[in-house]
Amino acid sequence: MGSVDIPRESWATRAGFILAAVGSAVGLGNIWRFPFQVGQEGGAAFLAMYLLFIVAVGFPAMLVEFVVGRYTNRNPVGALKQLGSGVWQYVGWIFIATGFIILSYYSVVAGWTIRYFILGLQNEYLADPEASGGQFLELASGLDAIFFHALFMAIVVAVVAAGIKRGIELAVKVMVPAIIVITVGMAIYAFTLPGAGEAYSYYLSPDFGVIAENWTSILPAAAGQAFFTLSLGMGAMITYASYLDEDRNLAEDGAIIVGFDTSIAFIVGLVVFPILFTAGVDPGDPGAGAIFISLAAAFGDIQFGWLIGAIFFGTVAIAALSSAISLLEVVVSYLIDEKGIDRKVAAVGIGGGLFLLGIPSAWDLVLLDLFDLFADQILLVFGGLMLAILVGWVVSEIALEELSKGIGPLGSYGTVWIWLIRIPVIVVLVVALALGVVEYVDFLTGTEEGQFGWWLEENL
Ligand code: PHE
Questions:
Q1: Nearest Cα residue to 44 out of 283, 371, 306
Q2: Domain total in the chain
Q3: What is the pTM for the complete model shown?
Q4: CA 410/CA 274 separation, integer angstroms
Q5: Which residue's CA is the closest to the ligand 1 atom numbered 8?
Q6: 355 contacts 189 by C-beta, under 8 angstroms
Q7: What is the pLDDT of residue 112?
Q8: Which residue of 227, 323, 333, 374 sits with most ligand 1 atoms within 8 Å of its CB, as the best mutation to test the pocket?
Q9: Does a structural domain hold residue 213?
């Protein structure tokens, strides 16, 4: 199976790569997934573990993907084929499948954000949290959700079909500053709420006893969330770095990307929890509905809330778009590079398949969890582990040499990076993966409300 030799595209501007990578990282992972994970995993204990993961595992793992992408200038499958021997190409295929699975339900959640944007324009946010919760359940599943999932998917396909320079860079330039301004503004509003004090102590002062007691569920959740939010473990960052044709300082770029991503998630927490505490809602309860229920209730409560809400959810939809683009780009770049398929044909065909695969998630929240947990806690962590093994143990010389381009001699930093990947990162990921599998089996067989076993009993 030879690859087809066609000229590859590259980023139009220096800032293009950083912007696109930030655009990929910042998305529903920060704004939708992060707060509900914090809520379900007990607050500050999760936040502490998550931050540790970002710094000690996420950042080195991001450099791994950058190096692989820039060195090979290939899509993930081609890149792994070139670096490893035959078996590694199967890992590349898992990446493609992972991107496909994630995007299928990602698009459903993104569809909700479009729906909530419109809800603002209709001035229909409900101030009562309970009513807002009911409204979410109505909008999140069923024909409504399928329609907005289709709409979002169509937009993603259109941007990706237009190609790297014209499509992605343009979309991202507007979005990153907008997100920051709006979330910071909302955090200031949340600060004035009566529940803010209680919320801050829940969110910010970790009880290490809680970590010790619940680490078997916090660890895989933190690992999955770190990989998801940084777009790691499925080749998105490999693909983006593969379009780099100059030697930039990848460590610096990586630090900027991780910094933006983590700050935005952190600030979103400062918005969501004061609202939930003020409304008297247990932060663990709303699950996937957390931001929709809590923020919509806040928007329903304040003056001009409809407008601020429309702006907020509109911006989140754009953030989701720039992430979804990178997910689709992984699959499409594979078809272009390895199969010689035309970009437009690939984007449209894959988009159609994604629409179909997303229907179950748009039909029932439990099925969305079924996809989401599998992708985060298993597939992404597995992908990250495989790349750590490849770069740490198989091609470490090449990786060090590639990283030093644009930086200069790495000295002991290079040694620290490689040894961090070789042992601690790999060990932590193996443990996280094993625990993630146990948790997933528990979800599959569990008969508590919201678990898949329960869903089967209810629906069969
Ligand atoms: N990082 C994106 C987000 O936080 C999701 C994503 C995951 C994108 C994996 C690409 C690859 O929303």
A1: 283
A2: 1
A3: 0.94
A4: 44
A5: 231
A6: no
A7: 98
A8: 323
A9: yes
